[in-house]
Amino acid sequence: MAIDYKKEGRIAIFTINRPEALNAMNVEAGRELQQTMTDFRNDPDLWVGIITGAGEKAFCAGADIKDLLPFMKEHRGRLWELPVTPMRGLELWKPLIAALNGYTLGGGLEIALACDIRIASENARLGQPEVNIGMMPGAGGTQRLPRMVPWCKAAELILMGKPIDAQEAYRIGLVNKVVPLDKLMPTAREWAEAICQVGPLAVRASKEAMIRGYGMTLEDGLRLEYSLVNYIMGTEDFTEGTTAFIEKRKPVYKGK
Ligand code: CO8
Fold first, then answer.
1. Which residue, by CA, sits nearest to atom 20 of ligand 1?
2. What is the CATH number of domain 200-247?
3. Ligand 1 centroid from CA 177, angstroms
4. Which one of 16, 105, 127, 220 is least enclosed by Cβ atoms within 10 Å?
């Protein structure tokens, strides 16, 4: 399997498992990412996802230049034939944490950008090197990166194709935290566990409001937020959370 998919309690762990190619995404990995992410979205017992790469050298070195790029060329203009993933097409309101364990390049950075939280190991290097091979970012890099970091830093990464190290990524706000490699997965699990303690439907509605609202006018965004608030206030979890606060006990959320 190119994507190793495990369920640990409420947490789904996706590991891109092609270390011999620095976890570059081939066609098989793209299809498996679609299948496993769809299963994660549909499984009511799973609340948070973590995505990482196998080995100690790379999270993902991008699209497989020998396999996925020729496939994309062959399927040029036929977007519907490409896998549907959180990078494009798959609506996923459950939170995703990217644990970046080394090279995070091209399509690899684009996977990380489609996550909500990014934790990097000290040896991580992040970049959009596509222009070096006459390609451009093709899974959201030109759209998400300039929305996340200052324009000039996005332009430096995308137009010059030169990667940055983990500390620089932290400095510009591209990653949430930098940790030693051996602390990477424990930290990602800790953050995922923390998200599992809060109301899961409130988390999903908040993510949906953030993502959908991003491209809206403030007025439309506020209206969207209000409709999601109306939905949340009708859930059992809202009643449980507020009751638990008043009764001075820990809430027990059910995702209902
Ligand atoms: N594709 C295919 N194979 C790769 C890739 C890749 N992207 N990256 C590394 N490999 C392979 C190498 O060919 C090599 O294989 P082999 O041993 O069989 O020759 C093995 O992995 C190890 O790599 P290196 O020997 O090159 O390792 P180094 O430590 O010397 O260098 C680098 C590491 C700097 C990361 C280097 O491998 C490199 O520059 N890789 C290419 C990075 C790149 O250009 N990525 C962008 C690809 S294009 C892209 O992502 C477009 C996105 C479009 C949408 C994608 C949707 C997911």
1. 21
2. 1.10.12
3. 25
4. 220
Q: What is the CA radius of gyration of the chain?
A: 19
Q: pLDDT tens digits, residue range 215-240?
A: 999 999 999 999 999 999 999 999 99
User: Which residue bears the tokens 């209000």?
Assistant: 226
- Indicate if the alpha-carbon torsion angle 249, 252, 255, 256 is positive or negative: negative
**What are the φ and ψ backbone dihedral angles of 35, each rounded to 5 degrees?**
-65, -45
Q: To the nearest 5 percent, what fractions of the chain are helix, strand and coil?
A: 50, 20, 35
What are the boundaries of each domain within the chain? Answer: 3-196, 200-247
Strand partners, 104: 60, 126
Q: pLDDT at position 14, please?
A: 98
Q: For residue range 33-87, list pLDDT tens digits in order.
A: 999 999 999 999 999 999 999 999 999 999 999 999 999 999 999 988 899 999 9
User: What's the CATH superfamily of 3-196?
Assistant: 2-enoyl-CoA Hydratase; Chain A, domain 1 (3.90.226.10)
Q: What is the pTM of this model?
A: 0.98
pLDDT at residue 79, rounded to an integer: 85
Ligand 1 centroid from CA 110, angstroms = 15
Confidence at residue 5, expressed as pLDDT on a 0 to 100 scale:
98
Which amino acids bring their CB within 6 angstroms of ligand 1? 21-22, 24-25, 61-66, 103, 105-107, 129-130, 133, 135, 137-139
